[in-house]
Design brief:
heterodimer; A: globular; B: about 250 residues; alpha/beta; 9 helices
Chain lengths: ~70, ~250
């Protein structure tokens, strides 16, 4: 049960993997606190300061699962 | 929620710790993702398409409607919703591989603008209160660890006046037919699963989880318990599946 690899080599004539759509930021909340999220473009993460978690965005898809989230250092 | 982690739940006919169920279900769907739709066709002899159309008939999509389809996988319900002049939809599923497959299809069909794909848990939805006009879940609620929690979340994210619709395998009210259907499902489906996806165990789980799921009336009571009103259901194909509806008023 591994994460889906970034479809290596198969994407040459397909469009680039879509980035995270900023419009989604307003449509999402932290699944733990239901509070707002901040977008870290560099890390490609959605940050929930209140919960202390960073949720990854992979292939443009936000992964809003606690099991997959990174715990923020305080 | 953490104190409850020593509780147990069903994984098909096995009893497993609650904390394990999501991982096991995730394993089932990661293992079958690419052939999931082919397998649905084979298992239900194509009838799941008719059932999903029946769900859209009951929902009656409108261009101003925003849908959340939970356990929406590769998006086949959301695509139907757009075909029927629905406005926009968010597809939420635990398995990222299913969502990626769905998004590829959306891009190919030029529908990407009206669909968003989010990996999330039905028991802890990453969406604000009162943010959708309709919530659908088809063949997904059976796999949720704590169904009442998922129903509460459905209620929370729906706007007042919003509609909940759930399509799920159910129980045939005629016992002779249920017997025949059990023979079919316990014998034919795992074998078919092995032939098509090479994975017998995942389909054994699917069959067992179907048999474990509460009957029509019991499930309707759970939906009412979550706060929904005017809860009704319709049997599809004699009760092999049932469509439940409720309103947040």
């Amino acid at each position: 049960m591994t994460d889906t690899p970034d479809t290596p080599g198969t994407d040459t004539d397909a469009p680039r993997p879509p980035g995270f759509d900023r419009r989604m930021l307003e449509a999402l909340v932290c699944p733990v606190t239901r509070g707002p999220l901040a977008w870290d473009a560099e890390a490609q993460e959605l940050i929930s300061k209140a919960a202390g978690y960073a949720f990854p965005v992979r292939q443009g898809i936000p992964i809003m699962l606690l099991d997959e989230a990174r715990q923020l250092e305080d | 929620m953490n104190e409850r982690s020593e509780n147990t739940t069903h994984f098909g006919f096995q009893t497993v710790p609650e904390a394990e169920k999501a991982g096991r279900v995730h394993g089932v769907f990661t293992s079958v993702a690419s052939k999931y739709d082919v397998m649905n066709d084979a298992m239900s002899l194509g009838i799941h398409r008719i059932w999903k159309d029946a769900m859209m008939d009951w929902l009656a999509p409108r261009p101003d409607m925003r849908l959340l389809d939970v356990a929406g996988g590769t998006g086949d319900v959301a695509f139907r919703f757009l075909d029927r002049k629905g406005g926009s939809a968010v597809i939420c599923d635990m398995t990222a591989a299913m969502l990626e497959e769905g998004r590829r299809r959306a891009e190919a069909a030029d529908l990407a603008e009206r669909l968003d794909w989010v990996c999330g848990d039905a028991m802890a939805l990453p969406f604000p209160d009162s943010s959708f006009d309709a919530y659908t879940i088809s063949f997904g609620i059976r796999n949720v660890t704590r169904i009442p929690d998922a129903l509460k979340e459905a209620y929370r994210v729906l706007r007042p006046g919003g509609r909940f619709l759930c399509l799920e395998f159910s129980q045939i009210p005629v016992s002779g037919l249920q017997w025949l259907y059990d023979r079919y499902s316990f014998n034919a489906i795992p074998a078919m699963g092995k032939a098509i996806t090479g994975d017998r165990d995942s389909y054994q789980y699917l069959v067992e989880s179907i048999r474990r799921f509460p009957d029509q009336e019991s499930f309707a009571a759970m939906i009412r318990e979550a706060g929904f009103e005017q809860v009704r259901y319709r049997n599809l194909s004699m009760g092999i599946a049932a469509l439940h509806s409720g309103w947040k008023l």
